[in-house]
Amino acid sequence: MFDFVRKYNKVLQFILLLLIIPSFVLFGVEGYLQMSDKDKAVAEVDGNDIRQGEWDTAHKAETDRLRQQMPTLDVKFFDSPEARYATLERLVRDRVIAAAAQKAHLAVSDEALARELQRIPAVAALRGPDGKLDVARYKQILAQQGYTPEGFEAQLRSDIATRQVLAGVAGTGLPANAVARGAFDAYFEKREIQVARFDAAAYAAKVQPTDAEIEAFYQANPKRFLAPEQANIEYLVLDIESIKKGITVSEADLKTYYEQNSAQMAGKEERRASHILITADKAAPAEQRAAARKKADDLLAQIKAKPESFAELARKNSQDPGSATKGGDLDFFARGAMVKPFEEAAFALKKGETSAVVESDFGFHIIRLTDIKQPKVKSFEEMRPGLEAQLRQQQAQRKFAESADAFSNAVYEQADGLKAVAERFKLELRTATNVRREPAPGADPKSPLVNPKFLGALFAADSVEKKRNTEAVEFGSGQMVSGRVNEHQSARTRPLAEVKDQVRVGLQVTRGLEQARKAGEEQLAAWKAQPASATLPAAVVVSRQQPAGQARQVVEAALKAPVAGDAPVFVGADLGEAGYAVVKVAKVIARAEPDAAAAKAEAQQYTQWWTQAEALAYYNLLKERMKVQVKVPAPTPGKGDEVASK
Predict the structure, then answer these.
(1) For residues 75 and 83, is the Cβ–Cβ distance under 8 A?
(2) Assigned domain for 213 exists
(3) Are residues 531 and 434 in the same domain?
(4) Contact 610, 174 (CB under 8 A)
(5) Are residues 238 and 293 in the same domain?
(6) Within a domain: 251
(7) Whose CA is closest to 479, among 60, 74, 87, 81?
(8) For position 365, which CATH number holds?
């Protein structure tokens, strides 16, 4: 295929030109784009498709949001099949609930919308002392997020309506004290037990298989002795760090950058002030606020008459408990630390000046500016190392953006090898041996050799069979990789002579586990028939919170055992590859009576769990009614990037 494209490149360009231009004319750009893979339906809700492009957009938005909240989170987390599928599930859920809200004709009043807006801190902060919204600032903030006020409020109305869909179920749970008590009693219950273990390892050590048994086990379990598919490869990494090595910052650029940014890098001006606060809530009656204002005016008159009395008046009259004892001192602060009216007044004063009475949400302030700390601008030589690092980083980022497309084109156009590409971009040609489809345990998570998309490209037919370069794969922020398979080895069953010791151990483990389970089950049956004959280790008390060193399977078996009266009960516990255990449950220890506060909290917690379960059941019912179909398979852990690559 690729040979044909390269050989008849100009002919194909002419044919594509004839095909593409009429399609734009007949259907328009949008119609043409809809024929791409982006228009593929990945799910259906109530007869309406969710397209691949919508899924991609939603996942990008979710990724951007999480990156802002958790900047240190590994970027590979966002590219995982599980993360992408979770985004699709959320998209489906939103569509289901929105459709249900529409069918139920749920409406949102202007009053409900206003209350919801007021609950948003960023919007509430835009209201002045008179309660009016700073509309210009409101529009500016929304515009930064890509919204108009009308669009944002329409989205908010939709969100409120959709919340009402499940609120009728989730908000109607009633505390069931008796049921909650029973559930928590069972969960926190303790039991006194004795445990006899039948360890598989002890039985395995006694197994001495013959050569014939080893060969039979080998023939019966060929998949256990596979040599996995693997390849020896060469690869190139284009990233910001590799580009940065070739960048030299000129002296002129450094000095220009210093002149443009030195003041900003020096930091913010800080001011130190003292204040006297007479508190008055903005929602207080007018006469109460007027009285507070009069008291502040009287104090200001005293200060003007005797300026040196400020600290003493603050100690006696200020209603700010944090600063009153210090004569009103607030220490140094920068812009953004104080409420807006206070900040504007403080930064308008000269050192030693006292403000007029300033009104804020807290009440009425009298402010005295006591000091000003100007940011120190460092010299060029002091800032040079940091400036050079910043400039090199910026230039490397720009050059990477410019080089990314060229790198992608180069590895495709020169598909028979990476050496020429390495020389062109001055990159190190790296090699790796025994690379597998699945990342090796303990591999460096930042390496491209653990990226599922890159590994998938390496083991694609075109790469393996024709030894072509892979496409350029982005495996991290500002990181691209392309590889080429030099040698490939298909998966094969290794000969018995090569794996005989491994086969022997596998047979011993298998036989040991079988014998441990058989011995344990036989002993369990014998002790059930004659309980008095049981000889067991000392008793221990276990619970889900305090397992007393016992295996999880032992604790679960003990707590689930049906105990009646004082008679001991014997149960078995399969320990998986560890073997088997026989558990004697001798006594049930009920938990202590919870106090009234704990009982109330438990009832509330139980009610919350129950209503969440009901809401989930209702959502699943809505999915059935909306005939939801998810048309891509859910990811299987450890099975590559099938979903992410769709």
Answers:
(1) no
(2) yes
(3) no
(4) no
(5) no
(6) no
(7) 74
(8) 3.10.50.40
Cα separations (Å) of 453 from 186, 428, 486? Answer: 47, 22, 19
| Secondary structure of residue 205 in the 3-state scheme | coil
- Mean pLDDT (the chain, rounded): 83
Taking the whole predicted model, whether its pTM rises above 0.90 is answered as: no
Residue 433 has pLDDT above 90, yes or no: yes
Last residue of a domain, one of 490, 522, 544: 490
pLDDT in tens, 128-156: 766 677 788 878 777 766 678 887 887 78
Q: Which pLDDT band holds residue 637 (cuts at 50, 70, 90)?
A: low
Torsion of Cα atoms, 249 then 250 then 253 then 258, to 10°: 80
User: Which tens digit of pLDDT belongs to each residue from 536-590?
Assistant: 999 999 999 999 999 999 999 999 998 877 778 999 999 999 999 999 999 998 8
Task: Quote the tokens at residue 477.
Answer: 């922020």
Residue-range definition of the domain harbouring residue 542 = 190-225+496-589
| Element containing residue 492 per DSSP (H, E) | strand 492-493
Region 215-222: mean pLDDT is 94
Q: Which residues of 262-301 are buried (b: 16+ CB within 10 A; e: fewer)?
A: eeeeeeeebbbbbbbbbebeeeeeeeebeebbebbeebbe
What is the spatial order of strands in the sheet that 473-476 belongs to?
Answer: 430-436, 230-239, 479-489, 473-476
pLDDT for 569-582, tens place per residue? 999 999 999 999 99
Going edge to edge, which strands form the sheet with 329-334?
A: 329-334, 270-279, 363-373, 358-360
Number of domains in the chain: 4
What are 17's two structure tokens?
Answer: 């030109």
